[in-house]
Amino acid sequence: MAGRMRAAPRDWGQASRVVAQAYFPHELRPVGGAHEPRLTLRTLDLGPVLIGHVGWGADVAIECDYPSAYEVNMPITGHLESRGRFGDLTSVVGQGTVFRADTPSLISHWDATCTVLGVKFDSDWLEVETERILGTDRVNARALLPEQLSLEHGRGRAWHHLITSLATNLHDPDLFADSELVRRQLAGAVAAGLLEMCSPDGGVTAAAQPRTIRRVVEALHDDPARAWTAADMAALAGTSVRRLQEGFQRWVGSPPSQYLLDIRLQRAHADLQTNPALSVADVAAAWGFSSASRFAAAHRRRYGTAPSAVLRHGGRTI
């Protein structure tokens, strides 16, 4: 029911097959020049839910269609870069990236220091749980789940603690192996926590992301360098600042100001990696940061290193 590797894989093909058996078939590509993987893989099988620790020990990129299952990957260390519906997305400790069932997805950079706490949900089972818990057949998991989860506050923090507590059993593979009832009850708790986190009304009927929120999201991606204010965003959405903040927290998982900061950091970080001739001040100004020092502080919080260090090392995050 739960598992761990019998022996460390000696090559990339073997490492890929081991992870595919536990999670999903995928296309794996080492991107950092590592000659061999240093794979970490431990899983706890709760039936329709699988919890595990996964790390490659090297920089890799992964393409996957996530057949018949949703996946939530939460970095324990390092960062995870992927390509979402609204552009590039980076998750670090305190965040989780959501990958949708039967949807081609790209993890463009799973960094060498990154180990994730991953939760896999059978998609048919999760849709049934969504209808049962939310009490309606008009909402589904695909519409409800955002691309990224915030796990540092409120229900997100509580759900993350639940998963972390279950993950402590990854070192005891036989703990729940002989009790289908316990495994199903635990799987149900994991699903309920996720669905309530993504439905702030606590089970009241949810709907697809409103057009007003989507309009602001698209505008922020189109022009992140603009000197946006909360009032500007609210005016674009045709609502009050408070309503906009509530809507973003519900449908996007973070306040609009944090969402905008994330976009700016992603674009700026890409510039640092691809154009080392630029200065930190140039990059900060190009993406709407009020000063190079504020940009540097935000970059260090997100990526764990100063932007100047990325430039010095030829575009490689260290």
UniProtKB/TrEMBL annotation:
It holds the Pfam family HTH_18. Residues 214-313 form the HTH araC/xylS-type domain. The keyword Transcription applies. It comes from the Bacteria. Coiled coil: none annotated. Keywords: DNA-binding, Transcription, Transcription regulation. PROSITE patterns: HTH_ARAC_FAMILY_2 (PS01124). One of its GO terms (molecular function) is DNA-binding transcription factor activity. SMART domains: HTH_ARAC (SM00342). PANTHER family: HTH-TYPE TRANSCRIPTIONAL ACTIVATOR RHAS-RELATED. This is AraC-like DNA-binding protein. It comes from Nocardioides albus.
